[in-house]
């Protein structure tokens, strides 16, 4: 049997890892995406780096964190943020940049400043795209959070790795099943949010 | 400078990175070939039946959200440790991007082309082979590009379940806190990932220029 209390602890730790990283990812991605909308050069640099970062295997990312940041909970967060921020920035940029020119001109005609246009015109129209990015990012973050247990971040990955090391199938499953359920519920929650926002938006 | 080169050479030989790279690319190419075949074949089976296609996509979508390591855990009792579960996991993840793009490409060929083909007397199979498939190639190749990135990532993870490949030096480096090994292996894997993605991008844009009617 698997002790229930440590498992609940691991689940809680796992969720902390995922949601902290998502929060940090959003707060880093937002200024990057907004700057990219206004400055062509910034958008070029950001998109190039992001497209390259996307093709780096997540295990390599997690490994390279060890010499750069160390091991433990915080390095785990850094790895998850690096691995999962790409879809947030990409979708936010595309959502903000592809707003109908006519709507932006209308906003300008009403005397809105550039930032007000971002806040009241571009951002609301970009919500569906942004939430699609968040969904993808949350799923990736959950996957990397399992992996970062190898650099000591704790969470459900630790249960899986301990089970693997001791050939204890029950233990590995007790780590894997909650991780899958978390993935499915993250996917579902963000899909519902995306759908609600889509029905509200103008298009 | 010479010291750095020495470290690189010693890490490269002690961790047998040449051998690991060969194993890595072997698993990579097997997994990619099988997923292309399965993905395109499934798309051909369902392209005229959107409802059936949706069922497939929903099932594959669920697999897509599962963390890679958790999927490994479920494959272990069936396939054991090593290359087999790694390759199967790669295939399970990369069928979706290939199949979805192939489906979109096959199903959404503009009606004019189909009408013209029918008018000159082509059968349904001939239309599929001579019209739909070539016109879907750019989309299929962009699906394959996504799959290339997925497979690179999962094959690297395979090192954790004794599949060999470049995940092994990464894991060894982390467990022994061997910083040079981590840096060299991670940079090498990262470079391979970027290179393969670039190759796939070149092929994709060539095909897009050749077959894109728009």
TrEMBL record, chain A:
Transmembrane segments: 12-35, 42-65, 71-89, 125-152, 172-193
Protein keywords: Membrane, Transmembrane, Transmembrane helix, Transport
PANTHER family: GLYCINE BETAINE/L-PROLINE TRANSPORT SYSTEM PERMEASE PROTEIN PROW, OSMOPROTECTANT IMPORT PERMEASE PROTEIN OSMW
Coiled-coil zones: none
Boundaries of every ABC transmembrane type-1 domain copy: 11-190
Gene3D superfamilies: MetI-like
Protein name: Glycine betaine transporter membrane protein
InterPro entries: ABC_transp_perm/SBD, MetI-like, MetI-like_sf
Similarity annotation: Belongs to the binding-protein-dependent transport system permease family.
Membrane topology: Multi-pass membrane protein
Origin: domain of life: Archaea
Record organism: Candidatus Methanofastidiosum methylothiophilum
GO cellular component terms attached to this protein's record: plasma membrane
Major subcellular location class: membrane
Biological processes annotated in GO: glycine betaine transport; transmembrane transport
Localization: Cell membrane; Membrane
UniProtKB/TrEMBL annotation, chain B:
GO biological process: glycine betaine transport; transmembrane transport
CC terms in the record's Gene Ontology section: plasma membrane
Transmembrane portions of the chain: 27-49, 147-167, 179-203
UniProt name for this protein: Glycine betaine transporter membrane protein
Species of provenance: Candidatus Methanofastidiosum methylothiophilum
Pfam families: BPD_transp_1
Coiled coil region boundaries: none
Domain ABC transmembrane type-1 residues, every copy: 21-200
Annotated compartments: Cell membrane; Membrane
PANTHER family in UniProt: GLYCINE BETAINE/L-PROLINE TRANSPORT SYSTEM PERMEASE PROTEIN PROW, OSMOPROTECTANT IMPORT PERMEASE PROTEIN OSMW
KW Magnesium (keyword) present: no
SUPFAM superfamilies found in the cross-reference section: MetI-like
